[in-house]
Amino acid sequence: MTITSQARSFDKAAAGYAANRPSYPPALLDAVEELADRPLMGARVADIGAGTGLATALLHARGARVIAVEPGPGMVSQFRLGLPNVPVVLGDGNNLPLASESIDILTCAQAWHWTDPHKSVPEALRVLHPRGALALWWNDSDSTGGWIADQDARLRRLFGAEDSEPDPTARFRHLPPELSFATRQLSWSRSVPLETHLANLASYSDFLVLGRNAAETFLAAERDLVTETFPNGTVEERYVVSLAVATR
């Protein structure tokens, strides 16, 4: 399974992704503006790996003149259902279908790790205005303790990942060294029905390539375990957004 094929696995689950994935807290865009040293209002913004438009919608609402770039036709179709008035084009971070020096802020939410930095960094520098900014962020479960830590350990065992303590700064270790990033982390939470929580898990790329039977078996057991913690059926999910912004 290549990185490209795993990334494209989202295409077949676009509707579920749009319905169940968490968005981002308003404080995130405040931090983007602070670290980029410019307002989003009126800025020319390209949202790379836009998916169904979770981040794009927030950027658009903030007043940015945003264009979305997404490689998956299924995701693009779902994007157009939710944001019919926002332009979206097929493409990815390695090959941006954008003019040189045409973008003030280039954003990449939950998607930079799917790119090849040897290609995506030069592309970012090409399309950015000379005083432009590159903003990368990831939304991860806050698995530093409690029930989320237990669930995270079960997920690591399922997918054969290294069984180590979660490190909230891990996202910053793999930033492209060619650029100087300012970083910020923001904690937030949302309350959702149990079925939304499970559907969110099912939209992870690892589940999408795991196979239906194995995924359903794990999620059925997870439903019972999470119900023990939240017997009223409402799950309190905690997240940490890791933001990194580089300016030219």
Question: Please, could you describe this protein's structure?
Answer:
By secondary structure, the protein is α/β, with parallel strands linked by helices. It has a single domain, classed as 3-Layer(aba) Sandwich (Rossmann fold). Helices cover 40% and strands 25% of the residues. The chain is built from ten helices and seven strands. It has helices at residues 3-8, 14-20, 26-36, 54-61, 73-82, 117-127, 146-159, 194-202, 205-208, 212-229; strands at residues 44-48, 65-70, 88-90, 103-109, 128-141, 181-193, 234-247. It has a seven-stranded mixed beta sheet. Strand 1, helix 4 and strand 2 (65-70) form a beta-alpha-beta unit. The chain is globular, with a radius of gyration of 18 Å. The relative contact order is 0.17. The mean pLDDT is 91.
N-to-C SSE string, H for helix and E for strand? HHHEHEHEEHEHEHHHE
Number of helices: 10
Low-pLDDT residue intervals, each spanning 5 or more residues:
none
Please tally the β strands and state the result: 7
Helical content stands at: 25-40%
Q: Write down the CATH class.
A: Alpha Beta
Overall structural class, as computed from helix and strand content, comes to: alpha/beta
CATH superfamily: Vaccinia Virus protein VP39
The rounded Rg comes to 18 Å
| Mean pLDDT reading | 91
- What spatial order of strands do you see in the largest sheet? 3-2-1-4-5-7-6
Report the biggest beta sheet as strand number plus sense, adding barrel if it closes.
7 strands, mixed
Proper CATH architecture: 3-Layer(aba) Sandwich
- The CATH topology annotation reads as Rossmann fold
**What overall form do the CA principal axes indicate?**
globular
